[in-house]
Write a structure and sequence with these properties.
Elements (H helix, E strand, L loop, with lengths): L1 H29 L18 H7 L5 H4 L7 H33 L5 E10 L6 E8 L6 E10 L3 E8 L2 E14 L1 E8 L6 E8 L4 E8 L2 E2 L4 H19 L5 E4 L13 E11 L12 E7 L7 E2 L10 E10 L6 E8 L7 E9 L9 E6 L17 E10 L4 H4 L6 H14 L4 E11 L9 E7 L2 E4 L10 E10 L7 E9 L8 E10 L1 H6 L1 E7 L7 E10 L1
Antiparallel strand pairs: 1-4, 2-3, 3-5, 3-6, 4-5, 5-8, 6-7, 7-10, 8-9, 11-14, 11-18, 12-13, 12-15, 15-16, 17-18, 19-22, 19-26, 20-21, 20-23, 23-24, 25-26
């Protein structure tokens, strides 16, 4: 009886589940209750406090919160443009998913995957208010409240074992509170280089899903589980401070990049250089620089009458984009009177380096970087260099992905903490000034004085509110905890005047707070100025 009872139980369980699903489908989907009443519609002033709390989420944000602005014009713009946006977005979805679908054809007995129907419907998203947040960064931050209750219809047909299965998504509703950041602002259209999107609240997602014509989301347990699961996954991925970054402009479009690390270069030696002098010798030296930089090149000493010079000289270069920048090495023959003769050149891509690992390169010198130039076949000698890339501590996570091994990563982290005591990089960004006024002319520019170095911004003609957005870097061997930086706004005459230059105000900033906090971004009142204010960002980065 035990074996028979077990078999009967298995058979009953196997038949009971399909019968239960059919009964549930009949009661929840096919069966339409007859006692459904029409909702009672009443004006807001007749509702009690409990009813008002229930409808509060439906009230537009601009009506509940004075920080949000009403944007009916934008909703009207979206409504008129939506038929064209609908087609454009659907075409993009088809083209981007075609490669994904092709990867599964032929696998798991799948014969084909394609869209039977794809439309976002006739109702566009509605923006219930926009809040613009003013910050002192070089970026624009807005928080719109978006609601979309669309009549979309997305059907995907899957052909499996010669049978066609259809999955249909319809009646999609999404309520979002995103934070959209346009940064950094640049003088190239569309005036920002990237869009960063994050969510400030957990989103609300509701939709219908039909499988073989049956709305499986009508099952209460499955409906609540799917709704909460999807909303939670979206929130985990993009809830602030997590974000989604969309690149708009490339590196050559005016987007200002901040330093991310230091490249240590040791020029070791050169071998078998060309004979350029009359006596059969050369006087070589090396110039080195990073691509995309306007800073003057660094130079080694000159080795007189030597075709196999030994330098062993060290240099530090500021790196802003290790994925695209290259180290440029140019060798010259020094001449006392005429122009220096070129001995050869070579480049090293920085993406070939591993952070904190020294790598030696023995490079064949070329006349130029044109691979089709026949002059590059000539033997011009070799140059030997040792390179080490050290990212700043706040940038270390971005470059640690190429490292292998947990133990190795920990050792590199300890190396970075030890190297921080050797100093770092002080970055000074002069953003703008306000209400600066001279007695004789108003052509302001800013001058930065620090440890004997003098750097200045460009001149803005005829302006009391100049915007420079220029950055300067100072490489230091130790933290500047006891140092003071002097920044002064000057004005320069344009035409003949007895007053060639005049001061519009200055500030002196103690750098101890910058070292302790890592970064300061603030506006400072100018000394010896009536109402002048200057906006400065100071950043201390260690390797």
């Amino acid at each position: 009886m035990g074996l028979v009872g077990t078999l009967l139980g298995i058979i009953g369980f196997g038949f009971g589940i399909p019968i239960g699903l059919l009964v549930g489908y009949f009661f929840f989907i096919i069966y339409n209750p007859e006692d459904v009443k029409e909702p009672i519609i009443r004006p807001l002033n007749e509702l009690d406090s409990e009813s008002l709390y229930k409808v509060l989420p439906e009230i537009p944000a601009w009506l509940k919160n004075p920080d949000y602005d009403r944007v009916d014009w934008m909703n009207r713009f979206l409504f008129d443009l939506w038929p064209y946006l609908n087609k454009a977005i659907c075409n993009t979805i088809r083209s981007s998913t075609r490669e994904i679908f092709d990867q599964y054809i032929g696998k798991y007995c799948i014969e084909s995957i394609e869209f039977d129907n794809l439309t976002l419907g006739s109702f566009p998203p509605i923006i219930h208010g926009v809040k613009v947040i003013e910050i002192q960064e070089n970026e624009l931050l807005i928080e719109p409240r978006v609601r979309w209750a669309g009549n979309c219809n997305v059907s995907v047909a899957l052909k499996l074992f010669s049978f066609k299965f259809t999955v249909q998504l319809l009646d999609l509703q999404i309520f979002l509170a995103p934070r959209v950041t346009l940064k950094p602002l640049v003088p190239s259209f569309p005036c920002f280089s990237s869009i960063t999107v994050s969510l400030v609240e957990k989103p609300f997602v509701d939709f219908g899903l039909k499988l073989l014509g049956v709305d499986i989301m009508a099952i209460p347990v499955l409906y609540r589980f799917a709704q909460d699961k999807i909303a939670s996954e979206i929130s985990n991925l993009y809830h602030w401070p997590n974000d989604l970054e969309i690149k708009i402009l490339d590196n050559a479009s005016g987007a200002t990049k901040k330093p991310v690390g230091i490249l240590h270069v040791k020029v070791v030696r050169a071998l078998n250089l060309l004979k350029m002098d009359i006596l059969g010798k050369s006087d070589p030296y090396v110039k080195l620089s990073l691509s995309g930089e306007r800073l003057p090149s660094k130079k080694t000493s000159v080795k007189m009458s030597n075709l196999n010079p030994e330098w062993n000289e060290n240099f530090k270069l500021i790196v802003k984009d290790p994925q695209t920048q290259v180290l440029q090495l140019r060798l010259y023959d020094w001449e006392k009177v005429k122009a220096h003769d070129k001995l050869g050149m070579q480049v090293v891509p920085l993406n070939s380096l591993t952070p904190y690992e020294m790598k030696e390169f023995t490079l064949d010198l070329l006349k130029n970087m044109n691979p089709n130039d026949p002059h590059n076949k000539k033997n011009r000698g070799k140059v030997v260099v040792e390179l080490t890339f050290e990212p700043f501590r706040e940038e270390f996570d971005k470059f640690s992905g190429i490292l292998d091994g947990e133990g190795k990563l920990k050792s590199l982290g300890s190396a970075s903490s030890q190297s921080s005591s050797r100093g770092g990089l002080l970055s000074v960004t002069i953003e703008s000034a306000e209400d600066v006024e001279g007695k004789h002319h108003n052509n302001p520019y800013a001058v930065v004085l620090f440890k004997g170095e003098r750097k200045k911004t460009k001149v803005i003609k005829k302006s009391r509110d100049p915007r420079w957005n220029e950055g300067f870097q100072f490489m230091l061997e130790e933290p500047p905890v006891n140092e003071v930086i002097h920044i002064e706004v000057m004005s320069k005459r344009r035409r003949f005047s007895w007053h060639a230059k005049e001061s519009l105000g200055h500030v002196e900033l103690n750098l101890a707070d910058v070292v302790n906090n890592g970064r300061i971004n603030d506006r400072f009142n100018l000394i010896n100025s009536k109402n002048g204010v200057i906006h400065i960002e100071l950043r201390w980065s260690t390797v």
